[in-house]
Design brief:
This protein is an alpha+beta fold. An 8-stranded mixed β-sheet has the order 14-15-17-16-20-21-26-27, with helices on both faces. Strands 3, 4, 6, 7, 10, 11 and 13 form a 7-stranded antiparallel β-sheet that branches. Strands 5-2-1-12 form a 4-stranded antiparallel β-sheet, with no helix packed on it. The protein folds into 3 domains: 154 residues, no CATH class; 241 residues, Alpha/Beta hydrolase fold, catalytic domain (Rossmann fold, 3-Layer(aba) Sandwich), CATH 3.40.50.1820; 96 residues, no CATH class. Helix content is 22%, strand content 26%.
């Protein structure tokens, strides 16, 4: 396969040692990349050819193995052998004899010379949302069928001929507009161009009412170039949005990927940088300058689920005078006594619950009947194979990057050792003082509470897939005890519901519209946008 006329030459040699254990040598040609590469090399292995292996890795995906590379020149080999850790198969020699479909991959890192004096090599997002297996410029091989067996001695070569092309950005339409610009704040911090963006869904009649200004729903969540709320003319939500029933609001989704993840978590952090400042001082002003949004707190409403649930709650709490309310679904851990199923303040190890002689694996994911489908150790093993030093682009690594301090080498100082699970209590204390939302609310309620009355609305299933309801319950326990003032919001649970339960679509927009009208200062015109 040839893309954009570029011929790529990554050669993947599969050799077997004398004892029958497989080893892989990954190289890339000068035609593929004419400069040395610092990054990470992978081998992905599947038992069928239904889909390329690079698209099939995951916590419950096909086996893959990864190894860091540093200044590797074209033609030089990176060896992936029995010493290299994989997931979910830990070692290559653990693969049973048989036929497999194999693919090689090179994830190219970028050198960041940050303003804090640290130099880091990180995957630089190319507007794909930090998914290395489809990040533009990365290199991958064709898929080839091979045999692995005790008596196999023949070297098998895979020559890669592919470079991932740029991401196509959807064109603007009557209903949906997009903006993207280089952030001065973030570029100064990272020492490389960093971009922010937004996708804006306009209400019915926007062009026909040029003098009307509208409330805004700032939707938080993972990086996506899709339309807000999945809007498409003719689909179910599209029919609702273009009907007389829908409230006349402007819906906005943000794009703010960072070198650690597809989303920055919308706060300032020593590791990710001043994304909170960039969003508040650059991104939202850019949206409100280009579109007719009511620039008043009561008309700025936050919503989002999971990652977006945490962000929508954090933005409201950290900027209580700027936003008028949040509708947070299944938020990520809001109290680190339940960081999923880990109590970071009391547990000594993230991978096991210990009681005397008994050690029980800590769960990560579950089904709604309570049966565990993934342990915390397995999840972190997956991330470690994807990328070391917090560079997996995955969930736990971004928690570590956002919530944690910087290590001596400039990378994240981790809460726990990814190989052993041992928790660092000093890092846990740092997390509590800076990003534990329940702790922050309790510590600051005297001055913060009056600014948040009636603004906090939280929804989660009581069998959340990632145990997030437990932290929400701890937050609710505090909120229900608040006095002078009482928080006067809502925390609701879906009986037996998984991640990510809560009001959506028309039900959510009705809640937000009613809230805006109720919260509007006396004498405010709320009729002009309710045509």
């Amino acid at each position: 396969m040839r893309i954009m006329g570029i011929f790529i030459g990554i050669t993947l040699l599969i050799a077997h040692q004398a004892n029958g254990q497989p080893a892989f040598n990954i190289t890339f040609s000068e035609a593929a990349h004419n400069e040395p590469i610092t990054g990470r090399a992978y081998v992905m292995i599947a038992t069928d050819d239904e889909r390329e292996p690079r698209f099939r890795i995951g916590t419950r995906g096909v086996p893959f193995f990864g190894k860091d590379i540093e200044a590797v020149k074209p033609g030089a080999a990176t060896v992936i052998d029995k010493e290299v850790t994989g997931y979910p198969v830990e070692r290559l020699q653990d693969l049973p004899p048989g036929e497999y479909y194999v693919q090689g991959f090179v994830n190219i890192y970028t050198k960041f010379e940050r303003s804090d004096g640290h130099t880091l090599w990180m995957p630089n997002d190319q507007w794909e949302g930090q998914h290395f297996n489809r990040s533009p410029g990365n290199l991958y091989s064709e898929v080839k069928k091979i045999s692995i067996g005790q008596n196999t001695s023949e070297a098998i070569t895979l020559e890669c001929v592919n470079v991932i092309p740029p991401v196509p950005v959807p064109l603007d339409t009557k209903w949906v507009k997009r903006i993207k610009f280089e952030s001065k704040i973030l570029t100064e911090f990272w020492g490389q161009p960093i971009y922010l963006g937004a996708t804006i869904l306009l209400p019915k009649g926007y062009d026909d009412h040029p003098e009307t200004h509208y409330p805004a729903n700032y939707i938080q969540g993972h990086f996506s170039l899709r339309n807000p709320s999945g809007f498409m003319p003719g689909n179910t939500f599209g029919q609702y949005w273009t009907s007389d029933e829908a409230p006349r609001m402007i819906s906005v989704t943000f794009q703010h990927p960072c070198p650690y993840y597809d989303d920055s978590y919308a706060v300032n952090s020593p590791n990710t940088g001043p994304y909170g400042d960039a969003i508040m001082q650059e991104l939202i002003p850019a949206v409100e300058e280009q579109f007719r949004i009511i620039q008043a707190p009561y008309a700025r409403i936050l919503s989002g689920g999971s990652t977006g649930g945490w962000e929508s709650l954090a933005l409201q709490i950290l900027h209580p005078d700027f936003f008028g309310g949040t509708f947070s679904l299944c938020p990520d851990p809001v109290d680190f006594r339940y960081f999923q199923a880990v109590n970071i303040y009391e547990d000594k190890n993230a991978y096991y619950k210990e009681s005397g002689w008994i050690k029980v694996p800590t769960p990560s994911d579950r089904y709604t009947d309570g049966i565990v489908r993934l342990t915390y150790e397995q999840r972190n093993q997956y991330e470690l194979v994807r990328g070391e030093k917090g560079r997996s682009g995955e969930q736990i690594d971004i928690f570590e990057a956002v919530f944690g301090p910087i290590g001596e080498d400039g990378y994240v100082k981790q809460l726990f050792d990814q190989r052993t699970g041992k928790i660092d209590p000093e890092v846990a204390a740092y997390w509590r003082e800076h990003y534990d939302l329940r702790y922050y609310l309790e510590k600051n309620w005297a001055w913060l509470g009056p600014k948040l009355v009636g603004k906090l609305h939280i929804y989660t299933g009581d069998m959340d897939t990632y145990y997030l309801n437990n932290a929400t319950k701890l937050l609710e326990d505090f909120l229900e005890k608040t006095k002078d003032p009482y928080y006067a919001g809502a925390v609701e649970y879906g009986d037996g519901e998984p991640h990510c339960w809560g009001p959506r679509g028309p039900a959510l927009y009705k809640l937000m519209s009613d809230h805006i009208i109720d919260q509007a200062p006396e004498g405010t015109d709320t009729a002009s946008w309710r045509y």
